[in-house]
Amino acid sequence: MSVLQESISLKPYNTFGILVNARYFAEIVNEGDLVQLLKSRLIQEQKLLVLGGGSNILFTKDFNGLVIKVAIQGIKSIEDGDNVIVTSGAGVVWNDLVQYCVQRGFGGIENLSLIPGTVGASPIQNIGAYGVELKDVFESCVAYEIATGRAKVFNYKDCRFGYRDSIFKNELKGRYIITSVSLKLSKSPDLNIQYGAIKEELANRNIASPTISDVSAVVSYIRVSKLPDPSTIGNAGSFFKNPVIGQDEFAPILKQFPGIVHYPAPNGRVKLAAGWLIEQCGFKGIVSGETGTWKNQALVLVNHGHATGQEVYSFSEQIVVAVDAKFHVGLEREVNIL
Ligand code: FAD
Ligand code: EPU
């Protein structure tokens, strides 16, 4: 049975390093614990927050309810010819799962190396990096409905994945707790090395025929050079999504700003690089009190040590206003604000 703690600091549980407290806190290490907890009166009475690694959350105030930290471990794999189904507990650190697969030659998630957080959170926003998204390898996940305590299997279609989006951020927001995720990987994968920075770094290393392990190493190297390490400077990765707009909206912006960084998106739409938009507004690497943007990546907001969540949020609002004023483009926060 999970141990219930009261009045605990959430600072070690969020990568922004924001100092807030939770009224109640319970860590669950197996499904039995979770089923028990879901039957308890506390669940009916308290506001709930399901927490993985806290790497996509900004706390703006104390959490006056019950935080359920999902810490279910364990990875297993079933091989069938070239295909492998890998099933992981939701509490496994995502990059540990990636390394488990890379070491065994199971391809498909090497481009997602070094993304912080847990496996259980990976379907929530359909994590993505360097040309690959979780949806590309997702087989299914098991999730428990909070209201009934019943387990349900969600297949690919059920999850309605989109760019940094899934059913768990929409219709089912706050209703299910994911306990395991299964991925469909391959022992002879088509490696995805189209991303400019990957090609460049492979060339620098004189690697003409990369292995899964080479791709993982190169992606990790690129990430470390661009993104701040939360163990030394608090952050939650990209604070905003890259805006996806229609051609009609895009045409006048392109005319005025011919250098705008953009990519094709599904259905003829256009994805803009939010980091570029923010940099053009003069925000790259600026320090504002205890917060600011990262010197190598304007899309990442940071905590210089003692920022409050309110301070970070207000600063993000200044960015939204500036980008809207200059480009008439609305930025949507990627980070979950609490
Ligand atoms: P948390 O922050 O704990 O939770 C995130 C959301 O998921 C919350 O709404 C929470 O309630 C919910 N949740 C968590 N676990 C469960 C569960 N088991 N069941 C149900 N709901 C749950 N993301 C990318 O997509 N690509 C990147 O390249 C990337 N780079 C990053 C770089 C840095 C330096 C940092 C700090 C973050 C980055 N992120 C990136 C964001 C983050 O790593 C991902 O969103 C990650 O999946 C969050 O995992 P977590 O366990 O920390 O989730
Ligand atoms: N750029 C700038 N200035 C900046 C930052 C970026 O001009 O300060 C321009 C550059 O031209 C660069 C382009 O924007 O070529 C794209 O930048 P980058 O390759 O760093 O990627 P991104 O679009 O900023 C996205 C994801 C990241 C993911 C990377 C790599 C979102 C919101 N972010 O960032 O995910 O790691 O691509 O695939 O989609 C996260 O979600 O937390 C995250 C870090």
Q: Averaging pLDDT over every residue, what do you get?
A: 96
Beta-strand fraction estimate = 25-35%
Count structural domains. Answer: 3
Strand and helix order: EEHHEEEEEHEEEEHEHHEEHEEHEEEHE
Helical residue percent band: 25-40%
Q: What would the CATH topology of the largest domain be?
A: Uridine Diphospho-n-acetylenolpyruvylglucosamine Reductase, domain 3
Describe the sheet with the most strands.
Answer: 5 strands, antiparallel
The CATH architecture of the largest domain would be 2-Layer Sandwich
Total number of strands: 20
How far is it from the N-terminal to the C-terminal residue, by CA? 28 Å
Describe the model:
With 338 residues, this protein is an alpha+beta fold. It has helices at 31-39, 41-45, 94-104, 156-159, 196-204, 212-226, 247-256, 274-280, 309-327; strands at residues 4-9, 21-28, 48-51, 57-58, 63-70, 75-80, 83-89, 128-129, 132-133, 138-145, 151-155, 176-186, 234-238, 244-245, 262-264, 270-272, 287-288, 291-294, 297-303, 336-337. It folds into 3 domains: 5-70, Uridine Diphospho-n-acetylenolpyruvylglucosamine Reductase, domain 2 (2-Layer Sandwich), CATH 3.30.43; 75-186, Uridine Diphospho-n-acetylenolpyruvylglucosamine Reductase, domain 3, CATH 3.30.465.10; 234-337, UDP-N-acetylenolpyruvoylglucosamine reductase, C-terminal domain (Uridine Diphospho-n-acetylenolpyruvylglucosamine Reductase, domain 1, Alpha-Beta Complex), CATH 3.90.78.10. The chain is built from 9 helices and 20 strands. The strands form 6 sheets. The protein has a 5-stranded antiparallel β-sheet. Strands 1-2-5-3 form a 4-stranded mixed β-sheet. The chain has a 4-stranded antiparallel β-sheet with strand order 13-19-18-17. A hairpin with a 5-residue loop joins strand 15 (262-264) and strand 16 (270-272). It is globular, with a radius of gyration of 20 Å. The two termini are 28 Å apart. The model has no long low-confidence stretch (mean pLDDT 96). Uridine-diphosphate-2(N-acetylglucosaminyl) butyric acid binds next to strand 13, helix 8 and strand 19.
